[in-house]
Amino acid sequence: MLSPAVPPAVTPLFDQHGRPLEYLRLAVTDRCNLRCFYCMPEEGIKYMPKQELLTYEEMLRLTSLLATMGVRKVRLTGGEPFVRRDLVPFMERLAQLPGIDDISLTTNGVLTAPHVPTLARLGVKAVNLSLDTLDRARFASITRRDELPRVMETFHALLEAGIQVKINAVVMDGQNIDDLVSLADLSRNLPVDVRFIEEMPFNGGSHEAGPASLPWNHIRIRQHLEQHFGALTPVTMAAGATASEYRIAGHQGTVGIIAAYSRTFCGTCNRLRLTAEGGIKTCLYDQGVLDTRALLRGGASDAEIVAALSDAFRYRAANGFEAERQRPLHQLSFESMATIGG
């Protein structure tokens, strides 16, 4: 279970737009055992050499320092987190860090089922399960792997363990539109949150056309769901939430829409990302604002690292559009989501 230890003295940190730093998305690896076409090419990507990835010790040190700056929630991401060896012992140590009171996980579910009892014991509050379709053939086509049965085994194991399950489904024109209703219907008899995510052109794609060119934006997704389920009732969400959540009459769970490409939620964003090689991103769309690996391996003191993190967060883009405009021209073609922590 998460440690009841007394939290460290905290000096809350706000960016220049008045947003607090509270939530760390921690990528433990850039490797993945699926090859989802919207994330990476079929042959995969060029992975970072092992020695260039942060060690677990380095991740723990950084997370502990961030806890003194107001971070309370940590979500482990990848790539696929369970591809990295010794992830569970790392999570056990992470759960003991003073000040961290919410640990969650994003996974594709292929390797997760055997670890579910341990996740429950550690007090993991929620697991986001990437699942773009319930159709086995379409799953194999989208991910280039025939692994849907193992993902569904994880889905049911999480529910049985009492862990909150959030389905993350990327909405792709011409690929899984026929699946949106069946995915949303999972919320009818099960206490799950099904969230539909606008597709983002991160697999070497460009943002030049902008959100207006997106065939299935957040508005159209909602309209599509309402055509099948009737009016969606908005749910009041906490500050910093990325999803607009809704209830469907008669359903136990909820549905949500994440306007990841339209970027409608930037005004309350309270998160930062730590990539597997130690890069700090204060926005999904920026080019990275701080190399913590260089600090860690260059002998920087805790105070020096905290100061560098503070500077990086205080000069944060107002939103994803500003962050994108600040990228160098040669970086306007975007990397795989696996390299930036989802």
Describe the structure.
The chain is an alpha/beta fold and 342 residues long. It is built from eleven helices and twelve strands. It has a single domain (23-339), classed as TIM Barrel. It has a twelve-stranded mixed sheet. A hairpin with an 8-residue loop joins strand 11 and strand 12 (290-291). The two termini are 26 Å apart. The relative contact order is 0.16. Residues 203-208 have low confidence and may be disordered.
Write the layout of secondary structure elements.
Elements: E1 23-27, H1 56-67, E2 73-77, H2 87-94, E3 102-107, H3 116-122, E4 126-130, H4 136-143, H5 148-160, E5 164-171, H6 180-184, H7 186-189, E6 193-198, H8 218-229, E7 233-234, E8 243-247, E9 254-258, E10 271-274, E11 279-281, E12 290-291, H9 292-297, H10 302-314, H11 320-325
Parallel strand pairs: 1-2, 1-10, 2-3, 3-4, 4-5, 5-6, 6-9
Antiparallel strand pairs: 7-8, 8-9, 10-11, 11-12
